[in-house]
Amino acid sequence: MKDLKKYAGIFPAFYACYDETGAVSPERTRALTEYLIGKGVTGLYVGGSSGECIYQSVAERKLLLENVMAVAKGRIVIIAHVACNNTADSMELAAHAESLGVDAIAAIPPIYFHLPPYAIAAYWNDISSAAPHTDFIIYNIPQLAGVALNGTLLREMLKNPCVIGVKNSSMPIQDIEMWRDEGAVVFNGPDEQLSAGLVAGAIGGIGGTYGAMPELYLKIFELIGRGEIAKAREIQDVCCHIIYKMCSCRGNMYAAIKEILRLNGGPDIGSVRKPLAALTEEDKAVCASAAADIRAAIAAFCG
Q: How far is C-alpha 172 from the geometric centre of its chain's CA atoms?
């Protein structure tokens, strides 16, 4: 019997950690892992969009996961996103993740070519076959992948005993309800709708802004669990406005998040990798304002 209760909670999507030359930094990766564990998060989602995975080599992705696991193994739940845009590299990363003892692997569908459902299922099942003792989570993000999960494809994938559920980053809340109705564990993806996603039946959330303000998302999860929906929605509204501020920068949102993290006492994990845009001088005032908003919200709601 699988232990699915361990997936109930808040999973920050782990950020790529670079040194001053732009190389993956083992030291900064370990520091960020320890920092987030200290915040009390349920687990980490490593190697996904927030981790800039599509701009990293297979070797870099292995190095980053190895250093996360060196700190986190046995302390929190780790989900490793292993998808590449070809099957062989994805299987290599899946086998590597299983060898490190991650709790689950995850994968988006192949991007660029819009493959038919049977080909997507074959891709996911091939990846899963390389990590046969590890839970598998489908990553549904149609706005970036270009293809969307549907009920027929999910039912086909649930025939694989390793497949436990879906990280759902599509915008409709209805998708969470549909995947849950098929028997899948569902993680809410869009940070702006965590409270609504939890009410709709998501077991937890995986989010790209969680690492910058984990205290607020942990509080939302706690309040929803107690049925205090109005209070959770109040915090959700504050998080949304902070996200909107992050997204107003000329530089990439993850560059802003990394600066905000540093300003609020987190580790310096560098900038982002090109072609993602680094922060401009004008962006720094926006980041300082967002960092102050986060501190004020934590004081107001989490004291």
A: 18
Output the DSSP codes for 72-128: HTTTSEEEEE---SSHHHHHHHHHHHHHHT-SEEEEPPPPSS---HHHHHHHHHHHH
Domain assignment present for 247: no
pTM for this entry: 0.97
User: Catalytic residue among 139, 210, 217, 254, which?
Assistant: 139
Question: How many independent structural domains does the chain possess?
Answer: 1
Active-site residue identified among 167, 219, 245, 258: 167
- Contact yes or no for 194/232 (Cβ under 8 A): no
Q: What are the distances in angstroms from CA 265 to CA 51, 262, 294?
A: 20, 5, 12
Contact 236, 194 (CB under 8 A): yes
* DSSP SS3 for 172: coil
Amino acid type, 124? W
Over the stretch 65-120, which tens digit does the pLDDT of each residue have? Answer: 999 999 998 999 999 999 999 999 999 999 999 999 999 999 999 988 889 999 99
Q: Backbone dihedral region of 284: left (phi > 0), alpha (psi from -120 to 50 degrees) or beta?
A: alpha
- Is residue 240 a part of any domain in this protein? no
- Nearest-angstrom CA–CA distance, 243 and 247: 6
The reply to whether 159 falls in a domain is: yes
How many H-runs (helices) and E-runs (strands) does the chain carry? 12, 8
Indicate the SS3 state at residue 44: strand
**Domain CATH code at residue 70:** 3.20.20.70
Element (H, E) at 299: helix 281-301
For the question of residue 139 being annotated catalytic, the response is: yes
What is the Cα–Cα distance from 11 to 192, expressed in whole angstroms?
15
Specify if 198 maps to a domain.
yes
Give residue-wise pLDDT tens across range 253-301.
999 999 999 999 999 999 999 999 999 999 999 999 999 999 999 999 9
Domain that holds residue 145: 7-226
